[in-house]
């Protein structure tokens, strides 16, 4: 894993048109605003009491969306 500055991330996405850009914040946060081109795969979501609970499907969705052969950029 590599941490990138915003400019470097934009350059990476421009150079890798097949890369997947994943926003792992909750759906509420994603809807409130997200980077252009990002897809939302929340790591956790609030339950009915507002407590964050892990997304049990996260690993399976990520594997299907971004197999090891595909460049992936994660926004947190």
Describe this structure in words.
- It is a single chain.
- By secondary structure, the protein is α/β, with parallel strands linked by helices.
- The chain has one domain: 3-Layer(aba) Sandwich (Oxidized Rhodanese, domain 1), CATH 3.40.250.
- The chain has three helices and five strands.
- It has helices at residues 6-15, 27-32, 58-65, and strands at residues 20-23, 39-40, 44-46, 52-54, 72-75.
- Strands 2-1-5 form a three-stranded parallel β-sheet, with no helix packed on it. It has a two-stranded antiparallel ribbon with strand order 3-4.
- It is globular, with a radius of gyration of 13 Å.
- The mean pLDDT is 92.
State the main characteristics:
two-stranded antiparallel ribbon, 76 residues, Oxidized Rhodanese, domain 1, globular, three-stranded parallel beta sheet
Produce the secondary structure layout.
Blueprint: H1 6-15, E1 20-23, H2 27-32, E2 39-40, E3 44-46, E4 52-54, H3 58-65, E5 72-75
Parallel strand pairs: 1-2, 1-5
Antiparallel strand pairs: 3-4
Work out the oligomeric state of the chains in this entry.
Answer: single chain
CATH T-level fold name: Oxidized Rhodanese, domain 1
> What distance lies between the first and last C-alpha atoms, to the nearest angstrom?
13 Å
The total of helices stands at: 3
Regions with little confidence, pLDDT below 50 for 5+ residues = none
Using DSSP, what is the number of strands?
5
* N-to-C series of helices and strands: HEHEEEHE
**Radius of gyration from the alpha-carbon trace, in angstroms:** 13 Å
Strand content: 15-25%
Q: Please, what is the average pLDDT? A: 92
CATH architecture: 3-Layer(aba) Sandwich
Structural class: alpha/beta
Overall outline: globular
Q: Helical residue percent?
A: 25-40%
Q: Could you name the CATH homologous superfamily?
A: Rhodanese-like domain
Largest sheet: 3 strands, parallel
What's the domain count? 1
Read across the widest sheet, the strand sequence of neighbours is 2-1-5
